[in-house]
UniProtKB/TrEMBL annotation:
<keyword id="KW-0520">NAD</keyword>
<keyword id="KW-0642">Proline metabolism</keyword>
<comment type="similarity">
    <text>Belongs to the aldehyde dehydrogenase family.</text>
</comment>
<dbReference type="GO" id="GO:0003842">
    <property type="term" value="F:L-glutamate gamma-semialdehyde dehydrogenase activity"/>
</dbReference>
<dbReference type="InterPro" id="IPR016160">
    <property type="entry name" value="Ald_DH_CS_CYS"/>
</dbReference>
<keyword id="KW-0560">Oxidoreductase</keyword>
<protein>
    <recommendedName>
        <fullName>Multifunctional fusion protein</fullName>
        <ecNumber>1.2.1.88</ecNumber>
    </recommendedName>
</protein>
<comment type="pathway">
    <text>Amino-acid degradation; L-proline degradation into L-glutamate; L-glutamate from L-proline: step 2/2.</text>
</comment>
<dbReference type="InterPro" id="IPR050485">
    <property type="entry name" value="Proline_metab_enzyme"/>
</dbReference>
<dbReference type="GO" id="GO:0005759">
    <property type="term" value="C:mitochondrial matrix"/>
</dbReference>
<feature type="domain" description="Aldehyde dehydrogenase">
    <location>
        <begin position="105"/>
        <end position="574"/>
    </location>
</feature>
<dbReference type="InterPro" id="IPR016163">
    <property type="entry name" value="Ald_DH_C"/>
</dbReference>
<dbReference type="InterPro" id="IPR029510">
    <property type="entry name" value="Ald_DH_CS_GLU"/>
</dbReference>
<dbReference type="InterPro" id="IPR015590">
    <property type="entry name" value="Aldehyde_DH_dom"/>
</dbReference>
<dbReference type="InterPro" id="IPR016162">
    <property type="entry name" value="Ald_DH_N"/>
</dbReference>
<dbReference type="InterPro" id="IPR016161">
    <property type="entry name" value="Ald_DH/histidinol_DH"/>
</dbReference>
<dbReference type="InterPro" id="IPR005931">
    <property type="entry name" value="P5CDH/ALDH4A1"/>
</dbReference>
Length: 592
């Protein structure tokens, strides 16, 4: 492995003459052993460079067609399990499940608000502090565990979600977050597993990335250290997969996490943590503390070891947290400048021009606006359509939307739409709908009905506006409400300008056209209007490993969930230079 050289050598800084040196010939088969801090009394060895399994590809999602009788039965059984065995979900701090003397809140099934599907504990101030301590303690071991061991935990969890817990995970997501089975499959099965598996591949590739040059006698290395301190993950209600990605990506890179889940996704999020524990996740690596978001966050953000925020949720909440962090940076509170990673809201557009394929643009608009009740950050909520195609488009759209009745998709398993998530959301959207009849610039085309006596149900609603700058074209309602503006074909340049500038967001958007010249123009003019830009496809439905997800402007830091770029935010790179040569004079060659 080692070869001797007695040549006169120059090192990388050109400062010294070296008379002889031992040059390492390094290859991936070299043996590198490593022990952790002896205090931990553990020994880890890494006797090869392990690569991520080669077969990593998108998880196959089940279709739940009429013929998939067995799948339906297994799903029904798990739904029945949750509805007949309601439990109290504990906090999990350092692997300990904590229940007693905590205030308890009911888990609400948004489709059936009186149904008892369990309750959950709220963290106290002391709990939050213990969660921070626990994560810092666990870090000593976790950050020294080999990448293979850390990866194996997420690969094992993926396998468990795909098999043993598939139907339970689906049932928890459908009951707690009001999804139908298809939306459940693409979220808590497909995307969640894809996040876990693809991150292993991305991390494996990142670790392989090493300096391209080492001068003779020198060995340069790049080390991808986890961040110092702990990561704070604040997760939204609407995707179980997003919660998994927000905790999973930093943890895989050797960080430990304090996790504040959303009050409206507790059932699935706790199950996810249990699956990770069954897969071998050591205690304290992920600490689960539901609780009052402001109180919990204030304690965490005021801790000097806070090293990163991994957030997904609304723009307003993200902005408020950012300013708290900035304020603390100003006070010199933190050890490091914290990383801030946040994906936030959107007001996503469809542009349908006079050459668009009618059926394709209608049905993609319908799916983009109303699947999962419009509660995707990527949901289509403003439609700009050419007057030439509008009459036929409107007929086909309204004919199909009128037939949709939101329902409890855990009872009527084949339902297309369910409820909105909670009373606040129901009130916000129903108030907007109520305002339509008093507004001369708005015309109701479909829907407009809502009822919260059993669950938070709102009919898919379409409204046309005569004012391109109406607040309905700018506000994120995060529900089944689509606003349409019909444009004259001669106006297209102004329309492109409005799409780009009338909201502060920049998340997703789609253009529908069969003209290549038009498509080219839209792509150019709308360059910064959407971080995920679709051509002849809906504004929702990004797939990990295919379209990495996120937007800029007020839609977030655009670190792209589901991509190699994201994981680089959770490491702090150390450059290591080791010199095998020795010097015997301070003089430079020119000092002769
Ligand atoms: N861009 C994306 O990738 C993406 C993905 C999903 C959702 N979203 C956005 O999320 C929003 C919907 O999700 P939501 O209703 O869960 O969002 P939200 O902002 O209400 O809540 C998100 C999380 O923040 C917590 N939170 C609320 N107020 C807080 C505060 N003052 N301080 C600290 N934490 C606080 C909540 O408890 C929750 O855990 C929409 O705006 C949607 O566009 C964006
Ligand atoms: N990644 C999802 C949206 C996530 C936000 O809610 C999509 O592309 O539809």
């Amino acid at each position: 492995m080692l070869s001797k050289s007695s040549k006169i050598l120059r090192n990388s800084t050109n400062k010294f003459i070296i008379k002889s040196v031992t040059i390492p010939k390094l290859s991936s088969s070299n043996i590198i052993s490593r022990t952790t801090n002896t205090n931990t009394k553990r020994f880890y060895s890494e006797l090869a460079h392990f690569e991520a399994p080669r077969h990593i590809k998108n998880e196959h999602t089940k279709l739940f067609t009429k013929d998939d009788v067995k799948d339906w039965e297994l799903l029904k059984k798990e739904i029945d399990y949750f509805t007949t065995t309601p439990k109290t979900i504990p906090l999990v701090i350092n692997g300990v499940k904590i229940k007693s003397n905590r205030s308890i809140k009911k888990i609400i099934n948004p489709s059936n608000i009186k149904q008892d599907i369990g309750s959950y504990c709220q963290a106290t101030k002391e709990d939050v502090e213990s969660a921070i301590k626990s994560s810092l303690e666990a870090k000593k071991i976790w950050s020294n565990m080999s990448f293979a061991d850390r990866s194996a935990i997420f690969l094992k969890a993926s396998e468990l979600i795909s098999t043993k817990y598939r139907y339970k995970m689906l049932a928890a997501t459908m009951l707690g977050q009001g999804k139908n089975v298809f939306q459940g499959e693409i979220d808590c099965i497909g995307e969640l597993i894809d996040f876990f598996r693809f991150n292993v591949k991305y991390a494996s590739d990142l670790y392989k990335s090493q300096p391209p040059e080492s001068s003779t006698g020198v060995w340069n290395r790049t080390e991808y250290r986890p961040l110092e301190g702990f990561v704070y993950a604040i997760t939204p209600f609407n995707f179980t997969a997003i919660a998994g990605g927000l905790i999973g990506a930093p943890a895989l890179m050797g960080n430990t996490i304090v996790w504040k889940p959303s009050d409206s996704s507790i059932l699935s999020n706790y199950l996810l943590l249990e699956i990770l524990e069954e897969s071998g996740l050591p205690s304290g690596v992920i600490n689960f503390i539901p609780g009052n978001p402001i109180e919990v966050s204030d304690i965490i953000l005021n801790n000097k070891d806070f090293s990163a925020l991994h957030f997904t949720g609304s723009t307003k909440v993200f902005s408020s947290i950012w300013s708290k962090i900035a304020n603390n940076v100003g006070k010199g509170l933190y050890k490091d400048f914290p990383r801030i990673i946040g994906e936030t809201g959107g007001k996503n557009f469809h542009l349908v021009d006079n050459t668009a394929n009618l059926e394709n643009s209608v049905f993609n608009t319908l799916r983009g606006a109303f699947e999962y009740q419009g509660q995707k950050c990527s949901a289509t909520s403003r439609l700009y359509i050419s007057e030439s195609i509008w009459p036929k488009f409107k007929d086909l759209l309204i004919k199909n939307v009128d037939k949709i009745n939101p329902t409890n998709c855990c009872n009527e398993l084949q339902g297309f739409m369910g409820p909105v998530i909670h009373e606040n959301s129901f009130n916000k959207i129903s108030n907007a709908i109520k305002s339509i009849s008093n507004d001369s610039e708005l015309k109701l085309l479909s829907g407009g009905k809502f009822d919260k006596s059993i669950g938070y149900f709102i009919k898919p609603t379409i409204v046309e506006t005569s004012n391109i700058d109406h607040s309905f074209m700018k506000t994120e309602f995060f529900g089944p409400l689509l606003t349409v503006y019909v444009y004259k074909d001669s106006e297209i340049d102004n329309i492109l300008e409005k799409i780009d500038s009338s909201t502060g967001y920049g998340l997703t958007g789609s253009v529908f056209s069969t003209s290549r010249i038009n498509i080219r123009k839209y792509e150019e003019k709308l360059r910064y209007s959407a971080g995920n830009f679709y051509i002849n496809d809906k504004s929702t439905g990004a797939v990990v490993g295919q379209q990495s997800f996120g937007g800029s402007r007020l839609s977030g830091t655009n670190d792209k969930a589901g991509s190699a770029a994201l994981i680089t935010r959770f490491v702090s790179v150390r450059s290591i230079k080791e010199n095998f040569g020795e010097i015997n004079s301070h003089l430079n060659p020119s000092n002769f």
